[in-house]
Each structure stands twice: as structure tokens, then as C-alpha cells.
Design brief:
With 519 residues, the protein is α/β, with parallel strands linked by helices. The chain has 14 helices and 25 strands. It has an 8-stranded mixed beta sheet with strand order 7-6-14-15-16-13-17-20, sandwiched between helices. It has a 5-stranded mixed beta sheet with strand order 3-2-12-19-18, with helices on one face. A 5-stranded mixed beta sheet has the order 21-25-24-22-23, with helices on one face.
Length: 519
């Protein structure tokens, strides 16, 4: 081998998850090498939906506006059966006040990769394209990986490795991670099209039929739609299926007059649902599809990979900068594995229900369930819950070891929750703009700012930099149960770490001693 490259973190895979990991490590000043066997970012659109939670991450990176400019907003979700609308969820309305991004954005995987890659390049970093991971020689005491570019093999040494190398992950295979699950019986199709119909062009439409299931997702561009779905059973043994062969089936399933003007991309494949039982081994961490794959129900896949990277990278950065003990890396599995398991169950049940050709389920779905869905989604009290689920705002690390509350106030948020978004903040800044630094933040809620003595205590209490954010005890916070002065320690990924009524140095030290480098 002709050479050895040295770095702090090796990232294998430059899809959305790997590129997000690289961008996050760059924010913290951590050196990394990212490799991918491809020649550049993905050209096919692939995954489409970007959730509100993911857009908040892009906002923290300063990239949200670029994503919005190049994506298509989905303002409503419709469910159709036999050409009749059974449900109409106004996504753009039910999400107001929950996030600045109170809608779903269609921003395809290829564009996510281009955006994240460009940000790396703009900051002087590069991806090692056409570089294939071969094997790990060591992963317990340090990382020693063999990679290959063309005919040249060389070593990369690092402190840690993040495997973002997809569902067929060579890293996962070499280290014998469990990856239990199965493959759905039905074949799945995807097509990027230009279509003509009398419906509006900003709607996500789901249409379960008697023989198959179809969904229509609006894309950037006039009349552009992604069409996905399952193929009827008669296509199960057929190879080399063309779009023209299933065009009539798609139109019949929706039951609405429709004409496809153009098909830009079409593919047929099998869907899998599998997951690991642990996200790490030694100094190797799995993220995204290398750790969990599932049906596209709910548009959760790419977003979950971005969240995995977001959770892991700040913890790696704190260990590498000696702000935290290595044991904090165990919380990556503690926090992300339960979500992956929930997601597999959720998408599996939703997909099976919408696609099953069992006669009883088909009848129940058509006569009862779709009408029930329409009724439930129309209930005002259910709508925020729906938005929080599809946007991943609901998921909390409450009850996990990094989440502690010592407040006696009856708050409507908990340690481990995503920091509540305050819409009417009363300043020229948008609320989340105040939490963009690559550090912990201490949010002080009070009608009076911190006095100099307490501010000095804050500076000396933590073994890492903390940015103080002052906010008035407004009506918005009072609606969330805040009645008096409150201190909210916010993690670098904008989840709540610690809640205190007073800044008690002993309480802070007690919180920090488990995972952070305190003396």
C-alpha cells in the first residue's frame, strides 16, 4: 500500500446521511475524510420528502433558504378511493405555530446531496469520490481501514468511523451486525412524471385500490409529480416492466381523469424492512439505511438518516475535544434505536394496511377505514399530532440518561424534547436562529436578564463553551406552563438536556458528572 491518510473521523458513504455527518463535523471543527464509490452525488431523485425537523437542521447550517427555493411545498394531504376524496389534511395549516416550516417540502435526494456537497466545497472540504471501502483491519482501539481508488489501495486511520453506506452496507456485513427483517411480497414502482389533471398541483395524494396502492407527490416544476406504488399481483413474476404497461393501472387506482405527458425516470424494485439491534460496535457507528430500511410510508427514510447523523456527530465532537467522556457515545444507541424500531413498526403496519389484497382488509379499508381517517383528520385536536408525527417533531429523548429535569413547574415540555418553537418571539430574530452555534445553549426565561454574578457562575460551571440566550417570560411561554424564572440547557442538536428553576451549580455538576469532563 502506497500511502496512509490520517483523520479524526472516517465517513463511509456520501449520500444524505454521510454528507450531513460531514457538514455537522465541519461545524465543530472536527477533521474527517468522507469516501464514496460513486463518481459524484446521486443523479436520480430517489427519496423526496424533507420534514420540518430536517429543515430546522438545514436552518442551523444556514442552508434552509436554498432548500426552500429548490423544493416544492406540499400544503395538503388527500386520500382518494374510486375517484372520491376521503380525507383532506391541510398540512400547511395544521403545522402553524409548531415549526417555522409548517408544511412538508419535496426536495429530492439528489438535490439534498448537491446542497450538502456544495456546502462542503464552499468551506474547502471535498469528498473522496470513486473510493471504495474494502475492509477494516482494526476498529476496537482505533480505526484502520483499507480503501481503494482505481488500482490504488491505501489505508485510512481515524479515531472513529461512521458507516453511512446504505442498506447493503459492507461495513455492517464485515462486522456481522444483526439486520433482521424481511422483504415485502409486492413489487414497488417509482416514476418521475409530468402529468395533466384537473386537481391542484400542490397536493400529496394517496390512493389505495383493490389491486394495488398509488401515491402522487408534487415535485419542483410545472405539473411535475413523483408517482409511487405497488404493482398488482399479475406483475409479480414479470421482468423488464415498462411504465406503459402499468399506466392504465395507475389511472384506474386513482379513479380521476389523468394523462401522463412525460416520464423522466421509472424503476421497479423490491422493498425491504430490516433493522439492527445495536447502532455501534467498538469505534464504528451505523447511521441511516445501513442501520434501518423500511417502506416509504410517511416519507421518513431520508429524514431519519439525517437525524441519526445530527445526534451522533456532536457527541463525537465533544469526545474528540475532551469535553465529554467516551461513555456519552453509548447514548447514540440509547436515543436512536427506539426510534428506528418504532419507525419499522409504523411503516410496516401502514404499508401492509394500504397495500394488502386480503379480501377482508380491502373491504374494511374501503368501507370503514378511509372514512374514519377522513373524520379523524378533520378533528382540530388531532391535527397537531398528525403534523408532529409526519414531521418527526414528536420524538423525544425524555427518560433517556442525557435528559434531566429538576424544575417544579408544571411545564408542557420535558427534558429530552425538541426545544419548543416560539412563533411570536417578539424580536427581529426568528427563534431558532438564536440556537445556531455549534455548542450548548443556556436559555434563560425571565423578565430580567442574568446578573453578572450568575453569568460568571455559568461560565465556570461547564467544561465546554455555553452560549446564553435571554428571552422574556412571554405569553407564549406561559401557555407552555412557565410561571417563573427558568433555565433550559439546550444540546447542540436543539434537544433539551436539563431544566432548572434556579441556576444551582451543584445540580449542574450532578448532571454533568455522568458523561462530561468535570473535575
Amino acid at each position: 500500500m502506497s500511502k496512509t491518510l490520517n483523520t479524526e473521523v472516517l465517513i463511509v458513504g456520501a449520500g444524505p446521511t454521510g454528507l450531513m455527518a460531514a457538514n455537522q463535523l465541519m461545524r465543530f471543527g472536527i477533521d474527517f475524510i468522507i469516501i464514496d464509490s460513486k463518481s459524484g452525488p446521486t443523479k436520480e431523485s430517489r427519496a423526496l420528502a424533507v420534514s420540518a425537523r430536517s429543515l430546522e437542521i438545514y436552518q442551523q447550517l444556514g442552508l434552509a433558504e436554498q432548500a426552500l427555493e429548490n423544493g416544492a411545498r406540499v400544503n395538503s394531504l388527500n386520500v382518494y378511493s374510486d375517484g372520491k376524496k376521503k380525507a383532506d389534511v391541510k398540512i400547511g395549516e395544521i403545522g402553524k405555530g409548531l415549526s417555522e416550516f409548517h408544511y412538508m417540502l419535496v426536495f429530492e435526494q439528489s438535490k439534498n446531496e448537491e446542497l450538502l456537497y456544495k456546502n462542503l466545497k464552499d468551506n474547502g472540504r471535498e469528498v473522496h469520490w470513486q473510493t471504495e471501502y474494502i475492509e477494516l483491519l482494526e476498529y476496537e482501539n482505533n480505526i484502520n481501514a483499507v480503501v481503494k481508488n482505481g488500482n490504488e489501495s491505501f489505508n485510512i486511520t481515524a479515531q472513529y468511523l461512521i458507516a453511512c453506506d446504505g442498506a447493503r452496507s459492507p461495513v455492517r456485513h464485515q462486522l456481522n451486525f444483526s439486520f433482521k427483517g424481511g422483504t415485502y411480497a409486492s413489487k414497488f414502482f417509482v416514476a418521475d412524471t409530468r402529468l395533466d389533471w384537473k386537481l391542484e398541483y400542490d397536493k400529496l395524494i394517496i390512493s389505495p385500490g383493490d389491486k394495488n396502492f398509488c401515491a402522487f407527490l408534487p415535485m419542483k416544476g410545472e405539473k411535475c409529480y413523483r408517482v409511487v406504488g405497488t404493482l398488482p399481483r399479475e406483475f409479480s413474476q414479470k421482468e423488464d416492466i415498462t411504465f406503459q404497461e402499468i399506466e392504465k393501472v395507475i389511472i384506474q387506482t386513482l379513479g380521476v381523469d389523468l394523462r401522463f405527458e412525460e416520464v423522466n425516470w421509472f424503476s421497479v424494485y423490491k422493498l425491504h424492512h430490516r433493522g439492527v439491534d445495536h447502532f455501534s460496535s467498538g469505534r464504528v457507528f451505523l447511521a441511516g439505511d445501513s442501520a434501518h430500511v423500511h417502506s416509504p410510508a410517511g416519507g421518513q427514510g431520508m429524514n431519519t438518516g439525517l437525524q441519526d447523523a445530527y445526534n451522533l456527530t456532536w457527541k463525537l465532537a465533544f469526545v474528540l475535544r475532551n469535553y465529554a467522556n467516551k461513555s456519552i457515545l453509548d447514548t447514540y444507541n440509547e436515543e436512536r434505536l427506539p426510534f428506528a424500531r418504532w419507525l419499522l413498526r409504523f411503516t410496516d403496519r401502514a404499508f401492509n394496511f394500504m397495500t394488502s389484497d386480503n379480501w377482508f382488509i380491502k373491504r374494511f379499508r374501503k368501507v370503514i377505514a378511509l372514512n374514519f381517517i377522513g373524520m379523524v383528520t378533520g378533528l382540530t385536536r388531532m391535527q397537531p399530532r398528525i403534523f408532529k408525527t409526519i414531521s418527526q417533531l414528536w420524538y423525544s429523548y425524555n427518560g433517556r440518561s442525557l435528559s434531566v429535569s429538576a424544575s417544579r413547574q408544571k411545564l408542557k415540555f420535558k427534558a429530552g424534547d425538541r426545544l419548543p418553537y416560539i412563533d411570536a418571539f417578539g424580536t427581529t430574530d426568528k427563534f431558532y436562529e438564536l440556537f445556531k452555534a455549534a455548542s450548548f445553549h443556556l436559555l434563560h426565561l425571565s423578565n430580567a436578564p442574568l446578573d453578572s454574578q450568575t453569568l460568571e457562575k455559568v461560565k465556570t460551571a461547564f467544561p465546554f463553551p455555553v452560549k446564553v440566550v435571554e428571552a422574556e417570560l412571554s405569553a407564549a411561554w406561559q401557555r407552555l406552563g412557565v410561571r417563573g424564572s427558568l433555565y433550559v440547557l439546550v444540546r447542540p442538536d436543539n434537544y433539551i438536556a436539563l431544566i432548572l428553576d434556579t441556576f444551582d451549580e451543584k445540580e449542574v455538576k450532578r448532571y454533568l458528572q455522568s458523561y462530561f469532563s468535570v473535575t
